[in-house]
Amino acid sequence: MIYDDDLPHPASRRPFNDIKESHAMIFCLLSFTTVISLIISNLSDTSFSSMRALVVTKYAHPTQIPLDKDAPEPKPSSDRVIVEVYSAGLNFFDVYLTSSRVLLSSLLLSIASVAQTFVSTMKQISNSAAVSLHLRRRPGDRVFGFSQGAYADRVAANWKQMLPLPRNMTYDQGAGLHITWPTSYEALVGRGELKPGDWVLVIAAAGGVGLAAVQLAKALGAKVIGAAGSPEKMEICKRYGGADFAVNYTTPDWQKEVRAITNGHGADIIYDPVGRIRDSLKCIAWKGRAIVVGFAGGQIEKLPLNLVLLKNIAVTGIFWGAYDVFEPERYHTVWRELLQMIESGRVKPIVYPEVFDLEHVGDGLRAIEERRTWGKAVVRVRPDDSEAARAKL
């Protein structure tokens, strides 16, 4: 999704500190941009005049944002290459950003705003980028990374942040890889210090990051309880994620069920991407670790610190978007270990069965908003002709 720099803002919108209000939305999206998966296949200086893209020029619900069929082409630079998009990931926070239903502070917006993800083929590079790119990637390599503006035919992506896409992954699977999976891995391993035999409670376990967390925890030897909002999604936690148990967090006293499952021990790790840490503290174990992954529920919680003290627990956050800046060595370690797990088949990205086309991005985001999706919802911009996709036929 592309955002116009001259985007007008409604009078009711809350201003950010030290940031011009007309640019606040742009600031947030540039902070976290998009996840990509792309193929390098053509280094020629191919020229395009226009393309299809979702361009946001005014605040509106995603279903009211028309597809621009004559959008301006992105330009290559010293660190960005032009790629053709195959698949793009859909993310809940785009609904809030496009419709200006943003109630968080500027800092938390920067932390929370993960935009689109995509898969593509490289078409155009600058001379300075070509020299550096040649040292790391070859024409025909399948890679993934992130950049803004993935709901489009083409996008300018930073080649420095590209990694090899596993051969056993389709474009659709790759579109949901970059933020979802390393966030879950580092949350559990780095921040949660997961050990084999730990009881792990995953909130919203049928979602994109939730299913990733369930699979990773199981693969690393944990006993996993998936918490979901309906019987159907409870079944998804077990069928596609491999959860040992599932509970419905919309029912009264669901925490008692968690305690019963763990024979009174409680959850050693609570993984929460939606904002239910407060409720979950009722079933956390002594010296447990509660991991704040996000606020998809729309509210920032206030926690009773007396429980943090009395239960001798740790509450920690995970902000994967800044690891390449503050912890570059850990960033590469996580990716190396995670890709090994994916390539070996120990874990597998799950894509929501209904794949949307570029003309129906708004419908896809509405489906996420209404909690109708599970796994990773994806937009397919062009057909997947990869070896991995053919193998699934």
From TrEMBL:
Give one GO molecular function term: zinc ion binding
Q: Cite the PROSITE patterns for this sequence.
A: QOR_ZETA_CRYSTAL
Q: Ranges for the Enoyl reductase (ER) domain?
A: 49-379
Source domain of life is Eukaryota
Q: Which UniProt keywords apply?
A: Membrane, Transmembrane, Transmembrane helix
Instruction: List the residue ranges forming a coiled coil, or say none.
Output: none
Q: Where are the transmembrane segments?
A: 24-43, 102-119
Q: Which SMART domains match?
A: PKS_ER
A Gene Ontology cellular-component term: mitochondrion
Membrane keyword on record: yes
Q: Which Pfam families match?
A: ADH_zinc_N
Under InterPro entries, the record lists: ADH-like_C (IPR013149), ER (IPR020843), GroES-like_sf (IPR011032), NAD(P)-bd_dom_sf (IPR036291), Quin_OxRdtase/zeta-crystal_CS (IPR002364), Zn-ADH-like_protein (IPR051397)
Name of the protein in question: Alcohol dehydrogenase
